[in-house]
Amino acid sequence: MKKCAVCGKGVSHGNQISHSHRVNKRIWKPNLQKATIILEGKKVTTHVCTKCLKTVARV
């Protein structure tokens, strides 16, 4: 699966637990967006999580 190019955030694994405590495996996916970042004078399109997009926008 995809990962954030800035922080490396990927999928998280865990259990979905119902009210009667039946357990099912599930994954949580990060909110990745395509973003164009300028690295060393070149435009590069990468997948970046929204938290990193907010951080870059503030700088």
From TrEMBL:
BP term (GO), one: translation
GO CC terms: ribonucleoprotein complex; ribosome
A Pfam family: Ribosomal_L28
Sample GO molecular function, one term: structural constituent of ribosome
Entry keywords, A to Z: Ribonucleoprotein, Ribosomal protein
Protein family per UniProt: Belongs to the bacterial ribosomal protein bL28 family.
NCBIfam families reported for this sequence: L28
Full protein name: Large ribosomal subunit protein bL28
Origin organism lineage: Bacteria, Fusobacteriati, Fusobacteriota, Fusobacteriia, Fusobacteriales
Gene name linked to the record: rpmB
